[in-house]
Amino acid sequence: xxxxxxxxxxxxxxxxxxxxxxxxxxxxxxxxxxxxxxxxxxxxxxxxxxxxxxxxxxxxxxxxxxxxxxxxxxxxxxxxxxxxxxxxxxxxxxxxxxxxxxxxxxxxxxxxxxxxxxxxxxxxxxxxxxxxxxxxxxxxxxxxxxxxxxxxxxxxxxxxxxxxxxxxxxxxxxxxxxxxxxxxxxxxxxxxxxxxxxxxxxx
Length: 203
What we know:
Blueprint: E1 10-11, E2 16-17, E3 22-23, E4 28-29, E5 34-35, E6 40-41, E7 46-47, E8 52-53, E9 58-59, E10 64-65, E11 70-71, E12 76-77, E13 82-83, E14 88-89, E15 116-117, E16 122-123, E17 128-129, E18 134-135, E19 140-141, E20 146-147, E21 155-158, E22 163-167, E23 176-179, E24 182-184, E25 191-195, E26 198-202
Parallel strand pairs: 1-4, 2-5, 3-6, 4-7, 5-8, 6-9, 7-10, 8-11, 9-12, 10-13, 11-14, 12-15, 13-16, 14-17, 15-18, 16-19, 17-20, 19-21
Antiparallel strand pairs: 21-22, 23-24, 24-25, 25-26
């Protein structure tokens, strides 16, 4: 782990960061946050108060985990991902405290399935992402949504279960329909085209 005394990494005194975790330059871990064994965080990340990063979770550069966000292993977050306050990335599709015989389940009694969040995607406050789902590039999950299916790139999803209600661009602003399967961003002027996998940015 990088030494917080160098100034490259900031760790609040009340945070719990395992010595085997790897923190990139400029990353900040705030009060009461916990970063578990062998987690890897890239450069310039912010882990807010009370947030949790599970064992072996991999987080890219310039990601933000807001207060009390819970990211359970083996989640993978690519660069520029935002996880809002109290959002939860789960890892167990069939959660039980005990097995069919009534015995307390242990770590080897179930299969952890991590959530994958692609570059630039955002997850709103108190959203829940079900184990094994993928959030596409620059997608936006609305506050309070429950994601039970994969989310396409640039999709705006909301509700329980979450459904696509529109498209967003790289700026996070809802796109305007331009006809013939094309969409434009009122903020940046960028143009996007619909594909079977979501939207793609037209250069």
